[in-house]
Amino acid sequence: MWDYTDKVMDHFKNPRNVGAIENADGTGQVGSLICGDALRLTIKVNKETEIIEDAKFETFGCASAIASSSMLTEMVKGKTLEEASKITNQDIADALGSLPAEKMHCSVMGMEALDAAIRSYRQGGKPVEFEQQEEKIVCRCFNVSEEAIIKAVRLNHLKTVEDVTHFTKAGGACGRCKADIQKILDKVNGMVQAAAVQKSFNELTIVEKIKAVEKVLEEEIRPKLNMDGGSAELVDLSGNAVKIRLIGMCSGCINAQATLKNFIEKTLQEKLDKSITVEQA
User: Fold this and answer.
1) Which residues are bridge partners to 137 per DSSP?
2) What CATH number is given for 201-280 in this structure?
3) Torsion-angle region of 169 (φ positive above 0: left; ψ -120 to 50: alpha; else: beta)
4) Domain ranges of the chain
5) Are the CB atoms for 67 and 96 separated by under 8 Å?
6) Which one of 74, 80, 170, 178 has the fewest beta carbons within 10 angstroms of its own beta carbon?
7) Is the Cβ–Cβ distance between 90 and 155 less than 8 Å?
8) How much is the pTM?
9) Among all residues, which ones are annotated catalytic?
């Protein structure tokens, strides 16, 4: 018997927002019955404010899957799409008071379904299934890609193959992919360790600073802005003051200043240096 928190048991026995929204603005699907877990998330969005007004789920899975899906729908309601897109699997687990390590993949499934539902809304409401990249599949038993494993390792600071299995199910069946998973762990964690011994941002040359900022923009910032049809480009850098131009849908958004300060500036500060400031070009 798993050691579930009271919140997990409450959301399992009394799940909130079960079902499907009729004429949903966004529909995200993840998993399959073959893999043992499946989740379908539908959302209703206010077109003017982009606030999620309602969310419902249908799932085939264990108590953790039901509880995670139920909690996720409660978490996203009332949030803008941008705010909701920042919810991680760890946020879902924390809201439930924790999940057993072996069941963390259920919270990951919720995060992926939300990502798919938001993309569905951006694409006109056509259902979107969270898909792994076929050419980079590492675990074929559960159809888990290298990209998904790398993301789980980075977000959750995973250290062992067993950790990866708990969060993604990769390696949990035949086990033939465990060596490949270990290689990914070594690569990702090796990069993290190498970054820790690099020069501080203030010690970098102007060219090195530009490359560092561009790297964060490319890997951390643009992918999320692209989900909303926007992007950002580096225009100038003076000391630790960064000038960014928002483009696409972001350029005329009423939340442009919040995006610059609460997302882009905060991300650059977390990844590079706390003294970095971001201004609109």
Assistant:
1) 145
2) 3.30.300.130
3) left
4) 6-129, 134-196, 201-280
5) yes
6) 74
7) yes
8) 0.60
9) 35, 106
CATH architecture of the domain with range 6-129: Alpha-Beta Complex (3.90)
Contacts of 16 (CB under 8 A, 6+ apart): 70, 73, 74
Q: Which residues, including other chains, have CB under 8 Å from residue 123's CB and lie 6 or more apart?
A: none
User: Are the beta carbons of 195 and 185 closer than 8 angstroms?
Assistant: no
CB atoms near residue 149 (< 10 Å) = 26
Alpha carbon of 124 to those of 128, 141, 207, 243, 252: distances in Å?
10, 32, 41, 32, 20
Question: Rounded to whole angstroms, how far apart are CA atoms 110 and 106?
Answer: 7
Q: Report pLDDT for 87.
A: 92
Give me the residues of the chain with pLDDT under 70, please. Answer: 1-2, 32-36, 131-135, 191-199
Q: Are strands 277-280 and 26-32 parallel, antiparallel or unpaired?
A: unpaired
Residue from 226, 37, 29 nearest 117 by CA? 29
What Cα–Cα distance (Å) separates residue 277 from each residue in 154, 222, 236, 268?
25, 18, 12, 9
Q: Which residue has the tokens 């882009």?
A: 264
CATH number of 134-196: 1.10.10.1100
